[in-house]
Amino acid sequence: MEEDYLKEEELQDCSECGAEYHEGDLDEEGYCENCSGDEEEEQPQERHLTLVRQSKLVPVDEINKYELHIFGVGSVGSHVTNIAAKAGFKNITVYDMDTVDEENISPQAFTFKHIGMNKTDAIKEIVLESAGLQIDARHGEITEGTQFDLDPSAIIMCFFDSFEARKLLFDKFKGMPYMFVDARIGKFDMRHYLIDCMNEEQVTPYAAGLEGDAVMELGCGLKAAITSNLIVSSKIVMNILAYIKKIKYLIIYIGNAEYTETEVKKYSE
Q1: From the centroid of its chain, how far is CA 173?
Q2: Of 189, 199, 200, residue with least CA distance to 254
Q3: Which of 3, 25, 26, 39 is surrounded by the most beta carbons within 10 Å?
Q4: 189 DSSP β-pair partners
Q5: Is 23 part of a structural domain of the chain?
Q6: How many whole angstroms separate alpha carbon 58 and alpha carbon 64?
């Protein structure tokens, strides 16, 4: 009597959904037909803001004659980028060399899913989701050899942590037809500048403040809380809007999130 022996075929799990399949039913990467790894990853849908509620407050046609170049997207820069996009700015480029760490989640615009991502890629994703806008994201270090060829409409926004990096960037643009934004925070203290890079009366004292012993004590992101970061970020975008609308704007603002009576302001003429 001849006996038949049936060999049970080993089943394998799909790499995506985990369901069991015979080996021949999975592709080379271990995906089933429904989860094929060959399919393109679904991209976030690009949508456009409806700006009706702020149409009488923000001159959308005017602001989009300008380019925002945001250097450093951390405690201030990440919020400024998102606020500017939601205000209607469309021409935004961000620059940063860092990645998102867990300690960045509380004070900055990032969420837990962004941990480990380049900050530039993370803020690009945030702006697409929150404002429906594709911004230009450039990951990498700005060095003495880095060159820029920007449109005269560019507004340079510097939110680097160190004064050395801030000085390096300002030296690239002083004497050129750009406006230069600088912000500093520490604890609840806040400070921001809007400098005309061709105005010697503004450039000289600002540049002197970046040198040696004259360096001011506040660094961008130095133990600052989300509350201060959001306040100064909103003030910066409001000040840019004032400049674009050709009304009086702040050249220098010094204040404190807790004690508003300590504010010091120097306005344009």
Answers
A1: 20
A2: 189
A3: 26
A4: 186, 256
A5: yes
A6: 11
- Nearest in space to 192 (alpha carbons), one of 225, 231, 224: 231
What are residue 265's DSSP bridge partners?
Answer: 253
Q: How high is the pLDDT of residue 161?
A: 86
Q: What is the pLDDT of residues 138-190, one digit of tens each?
A: 999 999 999 999 999 999 999 998 889 999 999 999 999 999 999 988 888 89
Residue 110 has pLDDT above 90, yes or no: yes
Token pair, residue 187, equals 């604890």
38 and 57 both lie in a single domain: no
Rounded distance, CA 208 to CA 82, Å? Answer: 31
> What domain range includes position 34?
9-42
User: Within 10 A of 228 (CB to CB), how many other CB atoms are there?
Assistant: 23
- Mean of the pLDDT values across residues 225-244? 95
Domain count, the chain: 2
Taken as a whole, the chain contains a residue count of 269
Put simply, whether the predicted model's pTM sits higher than 0.70 gets the answer yes
- Predicted local confidence at residue 6, as pLDDT: 41
Q: Is residue 104 a part of any domain in this protein? A: yes
269: pLDDT strictly greater than 90: no
Q: What percent of the chain is helix, strand and coil (3-state, nearest 5)?
A: 35, 20, 45
